[in-house]
Amino acid sequence: MQNPQATKNIWQVILASSAGTLIEWYDFYIFGSLSAIIAEKFFPPSNPQLAYIATLATFAVGFIVRPFGAIVFGRLGDMVGRKYTFLLTLLIMGGSTFAIGLIPSYHTIGMLAPVLVLLLRLLQGLALGGEYGGAATYVAEHSPDNRRGYYTSFIQTTATLGLFVSLGVILITRTVMTPENFNNYGWRIPFLLSVFLVIMSYYIRIRLHESPLFTQMKQEGKTSANPIKESFGNKENLKLVLIALFGAAMGQGVIWYTGQFYALSFLQKTMNIEFVQSNIIIAIALLLGTPFFIYFGSLSDRIGRKKIMLTGMLLAALAYYPIYKAMDNIGDIKQKQEQTADLRIESNSSQNEAGKLVSKTTRVHSYTDGSILRDTDGKKELTVSHTRMAWLVILIFIQVLFVTMVYAPIAAFLVELFPTRIRYTSMSLPYHIGNGVFGGLLPTISTILVTNTGNHLAGLIYPIAVAVICFVIGIIYLKDKKGVQL
After folding, report:
1. Any transmembrane segments, and where (predicted)?
2. Alpha-carbon distance 373 to 346, whole Å?
3. Are 325 and 425 part of one and the same domain?
4. pLDDT tens-digit map of 200-228
């Protein structure tokens, strides 16, 4: 049984680790949450669809470099220590996010704008590649063997909570100013605010002590001189890395991004749901789903990690098409009956970033189901009724449940798979390839599939295929080591 002092210490560790990790996810996901606006600000305006795809590709770059961050900072964490490594990643992430908020628009500095955004996204990706492995390892190495899934599940909530906080900050900023002001300069505020959150998190983390397992290993002179070589040059360990990637992390990555990011993109770009309403829908679904990270993390301590993760993958693969078909139907105005007598035409003028007066004409269509469509010079925004909104929340909440099943146990699963001396490096790489490459490319690949086929649901081919492949490999090769002594 864990003594009271140890219990107090583990909660201090979780608070400090989670606070920093939440801020890093917040920083990382502001970019994705504001991708539609960023496409307008930092990329050539001649082709809006291409600009949006380019923005998603820039967003994906931050994911693609995460494995390199895992190698660089994983090596540092296994040689120098867990604590100082994720202090460094926190500062890099916070500085990069703040800088994005300062970059002048494409209208001001031309092609230098997307180049600077790309460079800062690279730094964000490298930092996040080193952050997660350190935080998860640090918490796991402070946890009792029989509660590891439960305690590490709090770290797992930070990715979703980071997205939730980013949406909350964006919504508050958007509602306290006019749409024109938010579009002109207000979108920068969530980026700039991150500097205050990073300072607070750094203050909390700097007071932590190093992991007891790492401290003991260092005192005994057993730290790895070359953790990269030991992790990937050793045949047996490399086999574990590949099994972790293709049997767990790959499927977890696509399910995480489908259930949260692709869902938001689908609402805004495919269904044309109004900006504030679409973010509220996602935020409510995330808030309802977050406690299930703790539930499934704790459950994995009793029945094992493998069963829960693979069940989540299979359910997601089977349910995605009917879920998104139902969402598409809710937003399909061809299936709605318009109240033509209520058609309104509004005209207004506002200044753009260049200071020029721009006139806009908006046609407001009302439908019998309570939906309202605002068509401003071809740019459509659909506001659905409260009943339809509730259905969308339920459909996305189900997807978030799949996320909690595959994501809650994976930190404990990866930590238990590798020895202490190379744990930071070994667990970080498959996690960040699975999330950064397979998961991070999902919005871009899915958008390209939809654009090329003209089918709203074609983007689901990718996550369903990856989840099925990972499920099959996981059934055959994954071994559960729940509760093993580290």
Report:
1. 12-38, 50-73, 85-103, 109-129, 150-173, 185-204, 238-258, 278-296, 389-417, 429-451, 457-478
2. 13
3. yes
4. 878 777 776 666 666 776 676 666 667 77
